[in-house]
Specification:
Layout lengths: L1 E6 L6 E6 L5 E7 L6 E9 L2 E9 L3
Antiparallel strand pairs: 1-2, 3-4, 4-5
Protein name: CPXCG motif-containing cysteine-rich protein
Pfam families: Zn_ribbon_21
Length: about 60
């Protein structure tokens, strides 16, 4: 598990998420802990190391 800090694409607050590095590629929706809006999270790991992290506003 890995804690990763980023900026919410809705409210622009700095938040963190616990990422599961046991799965190499993941795309899922998680609500912002500040504004509760849904964020699409895309992550990719290589040898348990984070190589790609992207969050998107799903209402684009």
């Amino acid at each position: 598990m890995l804690e990763h800090y980023f900026t919410c694409p809705y409210c622009w607050e700095a938040i963190s998420m616990i990422l599961d590095n046991s799965v190499s590629k993941q795309v899922y929706i998680e609500d912002c802990e500040v504004c509760c809006n849904p964020i699409q999270v895309s992550v990719q790991f290589c040898n348990s190391e984070l190589v790609h992290f992207q969050v998107d506003n799903i209402e684009q």
